[in-house]
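Deliverable D4.2, example record:
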Amino acid sequence: MSVFIRRCLPVVILLLFAGLSAGLLLNRPQPQQKIVEMMVPVLEVVQVKKQLLPFNVNSYGMVKPKHQAELVAQVSGIVNRLAPAFAVGQFVQKGDVLAYLDDDDYHADLAQAQATLAQANALLEQEIARGIVAKKTLRHVATAKQSALGLRIPQRKQQQANVNFAKAALARAQRNVTRTNITAPFDGLITEKKINIGSHVNVGEQVGHIYGTDVARIRLPVTPQALSFIDATQLNTNVILTSGRDDQPFQQWSAMFIGTEGVIDPQSRMVYLIVDVTDPYQLRLPAQQRTTVLNFGTFVTATIAAKPMENTVRLQRHMIRNDHVVLVDSHGFTQIRKVIVARMDLEHAYISNGLNDGELVSLTWPDNHLEGTAVTTVLNSAKLIEQPALTVIPSKVTEKGE
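Output generated by the structure prediction step:
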């Protein structure tokens, strides 16, 4: 009996454990089924709004006089006297005498020319009288046989030529006397003086330099593409010049658009616009009415009004990739659309075609984006706030504009 029990006990134990295991497996708790929720991306969008946008072209340049000239001596001589206005930084008017040269010799030449002319006139009168006498003497001779020499016609012409020569010499002597006074050719600012009292000057020698103060001229470089944005009509092109430093408030001047130089600079590949400022030093105004004087040599920034853009959409530059944007349709699905970018500045792109009013454009490009993806949109109304006028800066070149 004990031997039978010992042999069957292991089998009984195995069967018991097998039964317990089967019971545990049958009575184990069932796992709860979870509903898988689809994650819908959220896109921040702006609503398209077509507008009439103002447009400016920015450039820069240095103020220079429209007219400037070297003051030169037209006759030689020693400087006897200088006018107080003939000094660097002094304003002068057209015709003001700046320097006086020794004119004694030129007055002597003038007196000699006057005497020569008087002598030539006297000889001419004598020859005319001789001609009258000769004509009376030959009145009985046939006209065909009368010679010009006998009538003293060549002699009279010679004396007439001497008179003309003497008149020309007198006129030259008078001019030389006048040229001993060096005068200002126009209203201007003296910027250089090279002579002093006692200096000897020769004909053609430079004695100073003058800037005309009637008009200031500024050359403004722009790219050929930026030039295409500017209205060629002068009346429609407003130019504002601005200058200022950290320790001074900004000053502004209104300038007149003249046109372009008509050529592209071979080095910079820029086109130069020409603008003028009338009376930059305000010398035509009373002293108490002068406000913002525009000094020659001032470096200014110019804001040039360009042609406005109609039916244009303004978007931030990062919203566009390779001339494409991400749209969200009325059903909440995305689509990629090609647009026409008319211009770009440092922050914005300006779309002339490809978008319609009311459409939603994504502010970002989702990673691994597939067209037709369902999304949830969040409208960003702050992006619809009006932006300042588009500005083109010639030194900043972009893919689609300046």
